[in-house]
Design goal:
This protein is of the alpha+beta class and 98 residues long. It has a single domain, classed as RelE-like (YaeB-like fold, 2-Layer Sandwich), CATH 3.30.2310. The chain is built from two helices and five strands, in the order βααββββ. Strands 1-5-4-3-2 form a five-stranded mixed sheet. β2 and β3 form a beta hairpin. α1 runs antiparallel to α2. It is globular. It starts with a strand and ends in a 10-residue tail after the last strand. 22% of the residues are buried.
């Protein structure tokens, strides 16, 4: 069963910040590639939600590496995949930022 994707305010804010940064620093082609890859992975997760690694078992948080610099954190419920946050892997230990 395909699960519905739910973006939290935080995940939307962080996603848009990444897009802004990429567009200013690397241009439209890199930005489009990141957006396409993100949506492809989110679509994949809607079909196979347990592909990501367990980041915090107690809280049910999973993670998936979008690019070598950006990681997506999400939670799986019975009917939904809740996108919690995007994290820049260059700025420290991702597990302490959940």
């Amino acid at each position: 069963m395909v699960k519905e994707i739910v973006w939290t305010k935080r995940s939307l804010l962080k996603f848009n910040r990444i897009i802004d940064f990429l567009e200013k620093r690397w241009g439209k082609n890199v930005t489009k590639s990141f957006v396409r890859k993100t949506y492809d992975i989110v679509d994949l997760l809607s079909h196979q939600p347990f592909l990501g690694t367990i980041e915090n078992e107690k809280l049910g948080i999973r993670g998936f590496l979008i690019t070598k610099h950006n990681r997506l954190f999400y939670r799986v419920t019975e009917k939904e995949i809740i996108l919690l946050n995007f994290f820049d892997t260059r700025s420290g230990d991702s597990r302490s930022k959940i």
